[in-house]
Amino acid sequence: MRDDYLQNALKVVQDANLLVNLVSTRVKQLRRGARPLVSSLEKLSLEDFALREIAEGKISYILGEPELPAQTPRRASGLLRGNHSPHVAPVTPVA
Fold it and tell me: Spelled out in words, what is the top-level CATH class assigned to the domain 3-93?
């Protein structure tokens, strides 16, 4: 993964955790046969293609509401259990 592509993508998506999820989702799509939305004269890894697509605004994303369990049990410490991180919708190419 090239550092310059990573830095350019971080300018578009400032949250590094979200960027990792977006790149991962897009790489899965590329592995399943989706075509890259950017062209390159050099040989790039799938991760680099995904980072360039994000940096160039070819990929959009929607943050959904976190999914909460039907019943949220409490631990003895009083902290809630469950995954409360934001849900990332599948990556969709921008038309």
Answer: alpha beta
